[in-house]
Structure formats: structure tokens, C-alpha cells
Amino acid sequence: MNRADARPRRALGRRLARIFTVALLSVVAVALFRYAGSVDWPGVREAFGSYPAALLCSAAGLAVASYLLYCGYDLAARRYAGHALSTPRVAAAAFVSYAFNLNLGALIGGVGFRFRMYLRAGIAAGVIARIVAFSIVANWLGYTALAGLLLVLSPEPLAVAAGLRAPYLVAAGVAALALVAAYLLACVGLRERVLCIRGHEYRLPTPALALLQLALSSLNWLTIATILFVLLGREVAYPVVLGALLAGAVFAALVHIPAGLGALEAAFLALLGGHVGQPQLIAALLAYRAIYYIAPLLLAILAYLGLEARAPSGSGDRSER
């Protein structure tokens, strides 16, 4: 098939994807609107106000740990991409981009702010692209590994919530683990460690960096799940909380909703609705949003404005290092 024939197909595919996204988002919005009408909001306020300070501090400390782990993606990518930017500047770029990524979406936060801040530091666009690719792969590598393990070892909660047969979920889990294993093996054995995907080359990291990707990402997802586990008062089994988080994350990625609004909540209501009271569950999700999304976003805005004010004029014009 030549390129002229392929263009209409790609355009049709994009239109169908947009239609699917809008339809899915509409279903979620209607479901949440109907659900909101049945919520015991006075009970939610009571549950939210009953959080002890020590518990909120624990959740905030875990959020800090998660953001530090995410900064580790960019620090590891420094070695992969081959630049020499200082650790504080790399960490600042990673923190700001992650906070904006969570709240505004991957294109604006994970990509846009990274490019802006690294370009300001004099890093070449091609090097920044490698940093972004490394971080994206790292994030989903750990996700895939944990999802695979969860589906293989504990498929029942998701099977009940989704109306699927457990053996199908186990098979999906095995496939996910096989995908992770294939990536790690490719990093070890593929000649020159270069993958070509749809005309784009991705240079695989060394085996040590690939294992670091897996470790950092897995620990990050586990830490995020622990925040929710703590906010739920440890009343729900940790694997169930982790499963709800992973389901909500992939749902949010599918519908492209900024901050995953509604997607995470829908997953938790579906998977945890029978494990914990409605007011406590909604209070935990609101507290999680405040601690992990809103507070870091406010700090990221201040940090970004400060960095922009201190940056010398014209520092973002360099395209090579």
C-alpha cells in the first residue's frame, strides 16, 4: 500500500478514535452524574473531616516519595540520552512536567513542559525526545508488569466487576508479563538495541537501565496505590486497591480526560463499591486528588514561574548541545 492510499485510512482511524473517545466520555459523564445524585454528601463531608492529621501527613509523605521516584525516570534518562544537565535541574523539569502531566494531560505536561524546560537548559530537541520516550516506556513498563502479576495472581475482583471470566484475565496477565520479558530480553540480545516502530527508531537502553526502568516504575505505581490504601483506612485489601488504580489509569489513558477526571472514580466505584462505604470511598478519592494532583500542581506552577523568571533571555533558542 502506498502513502496516498494509507492517508485516508489513517484519517478514518483518527475520526473513529475520536468518536469512540467522545462516546466513552459521554457514558462516564452520564453515569457519574446519575451517581452523584445518590451520594450521601453530608456523610462524605463527615468522612473527609474525620481524617487525622497523622494519616494525611503519611499520605503526603508517600506522594513526595512517588514524585521522587518519577524524577528518577529523568535522572536515569540522563544516562540513556547522554546529556550532562545537573541533578537539581533534571529533577525540577521532571517534577514540573509530571504535575502538569497529571492535571492537563500527557501532551501538554509530559511532553510540552519537558521540551520547554529542557530547551531552556540548552538540551537538543532530539535528546529531549529520547528523554520523553525513555520516561514513557518506563512508566508503562512497570504498569504492565504489575497489571500482569495482578491478573495472574488475583483476577477475581476485576472479573466480577467487569463481568469477565477469570481465565481470560489470567491469559491477559500472562501476555502482559510476556511483553515485559520480551522488552528486557530485547535490551539484552537485540543487535545494536534498536527497535523500528511505524518508521520511528527507538534505541533500547542497556539491560541495567531497563531493569532500573522496571524497578522505578513498579515502585512508583505501588507507592501511589499505598496512598489510596492509607486514605481508605486500610479497610480494603491492598491488591484490590492496586487493581482499581491500574484499571483507572488505563481507562483515563483511553478517554484522554485531563487529570483522568471520572475515569479513576469510575474504576474505584466499580471495584471497591462492595468493599467500603460510599462516603468513605468518595472522601478518600477527594483527599487523593487534593494531595497527589492539586497540591503538587500549585507547587509546580510556582516552581515553573520561578525558573522562567531566572532563565536568561534567549536560553531556549539553542537546538543543539
Structural class: mainly alpha
- Measured by DSSP, the beta-strand proportion falls in under 5%
Q: Please trace the helix and strand order, writing H or E for each element.
A: HHHHHHHHEEHHHH
User: How many angstroms separate the termini?
Assistant: 39 Å
Which value, in Å, is the CA radius of gyration? 21 Å
Shape call = globular
Q: Going across the major beta sheet, what is the strand order?
A: 1-2
Measured as a percent range, the helix fraction is over 70%
Mean pLDDT metric = 85
Provide a count of the helices: 12
| Tally of domains | 1
Q: Give the oligomeric state.
A: single chain
Poorly predicted ranges (pLDDT <50, ≥5 residues)? 317-321
Number of strands: 2
- Describe the largest sheet: 2 strands, antiparallel
Describe this structure in words.
About 80% of the residues lie in helices and about 0% in strands. With about 325 residues, it is mainly alpha-helical. It has one domain (about 40-310). Strands 1-2 form a two-stranded antiparallel sheet. Helix 5 (about 105-120) runs antiparallel to helix 6, helix 10 packs antiparallel against helix 11 and helix 11 runs antiparallel to helix 12 (about 280-310). The longest helix has about 35 residues, at about 5-35. It is globular and about 55 Å long. The two termini are about 40 Å apart. The model is unreliable at about 315-320 (pLDDT under 50).
